[in-house]
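Residues determine shape. We examine one folded chain.
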Amino acid sequence: MHKQVSTAKAPSALGPYSQGIDTGRALFMSGQIPIDPASGEIREAGIEGQTRQAISNLSAVLAEAGLSLSDVVKTTVFMTDLGEFGAMNAVYAELFGESKPARSTVQVAKLPKGAKVEIEAIAVRPGV
């Protein structure tokens, strides 16, 4: 049994999918691009700001399910330019802190709305 997780503190889905699916033990989150939930637009031009916003959006979905970044066990980072990996990685490391989930990072040709980065994640509830 699972339920959809949705919050207005993260951007609405751009298609027929959920922000997250909660199985009780794990939360599977759809990829978040750096859309500002208030404006519905990408406000940051640089990879650092876009990474920060994408992770902020993930945090909002996590919070809606009663979880935090420290509960994330796996992420996948999609980037349009791996030449910006170092700058993305610095922000990622800052925001995840001591929590270091498993991660894959891949370069893609294009992301929705011209985003430079998209991040999806899986979180697990401790003790469940």
Q: What stands out?
A: The helical segments are 47-64, 85-96. The mean pLDDT is 96.
